[in-house]
Write a structure and sequence with these properties.
alpha+beta, nine-stranded mixed β-sheet, six-stranded mixed beta barrel, about 60% helix
Amino acid sequence: MITMSGRQAGRMRALSQLSWWLIRAQFKTRRAATLLSMLAIALGVALGYAIHLINDAALSDFSRAMKSVQGDPDAVIAARDSAGSVPLATLNAIARDPAVLVVAAVTETRVRIDNAPTPVRLIGIDVFSAAAVMPDLLPRQDEQAAAPNILDGGVYASPALLAQLSQGAKGSQGKEGKDSGRRAGGTLKLLRGEQQWLATLAGDLPAARPDDLLLVADIAWVQARFGPADAVSEGRVRLAPDTDLASWRQAWAQRLPAGLLIRAADDDSARVSNLSRAYRVNLNVLALVALLTGTFLVFATQLTAVAQRSTQFALLGVLGLSPRMRLLQVLLEGVAIGVPGALLGLALGYALAVAFTQLLGGDLGGGYFAGSIPLIVPAPAPALLFLALGCLASLAGASYPAYLNRMQPLAQALKTGFAQRPPADAAPAAQPRQPGQSGRSWLARRPRVPKLPLLLALAAFALTQLPPLFELPLAGYASIALVLVVGIASAPLLTQLLFGWLSAQPLPAPQRIALQNVAQAPLMAQVAASGLIVSFALTASMVIMVSSFRVAVDQWLDHVLPAPLYLRSKATPLPQDLLNALTQPDAPFAKVERMANAALTIDPQRPQVALLIREIEPRDPAARLPFTGPLLTPPTALPAVWISEPMAEIYRLAPAQTLRLPLLGREVPVFIGGVWRDYGRQFGAVVISRQDYQQLGGHFQPTDLALWPLPGQEAQASAWLAPWADRYGLEVADSATIRRLSLSIFDKSFAVTYALEAAAMLIGLFGLAVTLAASVWLRARELATLGALGFDRRMLSHAVMLEGALIAAVGLLIGLACGVAIGAILTHVVNPQAFHWRMALAIPWTAVCAGAAITLAAAVLASRYAARQATRLPVAQVLANAQ
């Protein structure tokens, strides 16, 4: 006897078997379209997963590098000005606090080894307190070398620096015929400006990271050689286990001088994360757009699959398969595309992450972690998240086709095939004009303008007016998504309006038939055009944004590079004898401007703000800075500063405000005289004149020079600077070289976006080809009838290719409009809110139109596949099956 539960189990097994047969048949009969859909999902998942892996690895690598040097303190006492220091008296007072276990004093500076052009970090430590807080900096004495220990002046190098010194020694030996002795027991000449120290290399730093270029010495020796004698760079504090960090930090923050701050470990982590957060989010949004394009390809594939099998589904419905099961079957087929596609995307994403880190570094060309090539280590949770995203994208693409399959009228599907709209939404199609009929009658029957796209367009505009959320342009991204939805929703309307009117005109039969097919099948046109709309809108918008940015940077470089020649040292003061030589009458220079660089900490959880001390005329700063607004004259009692646009955006500052600047160990009130454009420092910069800085008590130590050679003596000027550059490891470059380097760095930073654009365009073209091929299959009886009535293969082929060109033209036209709108949002909303840069919109019409023409030609070529199918239809067999 068969029980109810047995019947139910048998029914479920039968349905499962049926579902498996349908999925297998779908994959066998539509191999190309299914594989392309899987590849589209895989590509979107791969790009997003690769970006996640690279950013996660870069942040982890950077954090480990900080921890290796800084150790693991509970808090750090530091100056808010990079030129400042922490008095020893303050550290002693903190060390006497019962809540403090140990304070590790650190003095850090940058020095050059002999004449090496690149400076390295020299860290002075107290070896006893460092053992508790910074164990990775503890030195190891080379017992085989006759060298002093750390307390007697020995210096210890990291393995990477030792390898670098060894390579330099081999080069020196090859040139001079002798070994320069850069090994344990040898002498290193450490230079910082005019100060130098002949130190003995005594050993290495066994726990240093493989890429760290470090020197470690006793703090007293570093203070004696490079100063300051009564202060240190930082104090790293380890608290007692039962001490509340927040309360202790708050209490001491009120007692410290205004020029000092207390950083917690969380502040350092937040600062590292904020360093590239906007860049990471922007790349992830672009990857999601690529995944969205893949969703449209799944949508096209599943819709055409449902249309081709509408008769089979209708027969199954008559035999008892419920509408709900028909809907679930199509959704299950979508998941069957998404799961292997997402798994392939994870593998491809890992490969891309490894390749990108080797080619572009851990910052993907963004300039945040320059020189870093982190190790890519996948984690299970993110992999599962991106797997789920790929499956959800495929499921979303299959949802509307599944709904249409559920709502298909069975009798109509058995008789005439697929109905493009549910019965309740069906509307009469546009009819061609009859002979003698006025063209105005078509206007009387034209489709109504839907309100939804207009409402969505208004919502998108309203979102662009919102401020950033969590310091990210989330509303701007939502506005971009709505613009894409508006473009896709407007495709059927534009198709019916434009091609309905054209089909009513007196045209040759092949052209009229192609126009009528597009006008009477708006859903298929929408499916075919949707991928192109999204992909071309993305490509055009990025081209517009990048062009606007590049034009702005080019104009900015014209203003900030007025001198023919520039000289700089790397983070160390320029030698005084060079500065003196430049003042001599025999120097071939008509003018020399000096500049010093420092850094200020306004917010411990944000990256530092650059302080630029320049020889600038306070009454005419616009001669050197590209101001974006009016210049204001400061009160006589306050020094003037000029802040960059990013600093004004990040800290909500404006001209005429008084800013308390952490400078020279105290808070100095300064007057904001104006805001200037700066594309070189994303996190803000403030300019102060040399005169005001020295009047405040600062010591002006130039690190950069702008030089104007005497007329006709440009070559002599370069030759005059060459010995100084070789002797002190300085960099000399002309303004044209700096411009080329700056623009090449700019182009490199957008390398990943170019890859995303190319991928999106390929997916869009694939979707067009797949949908046109399915459209030919759906109209097999119609095309066979035309063949029986006298249409030859050439006429049918031209009609199908014209149809593809018309659909592509609609997609490109809407995509161009959406691209311009999205480009404006990226330029005027996303860039200012994410990267704090403003610029004018510059649309490169030549490049955009050329891209549209190339895409249209590619779309016509893609439609040839469908045209070949149309010419191969067996006319007699199709007409016989239609009876």
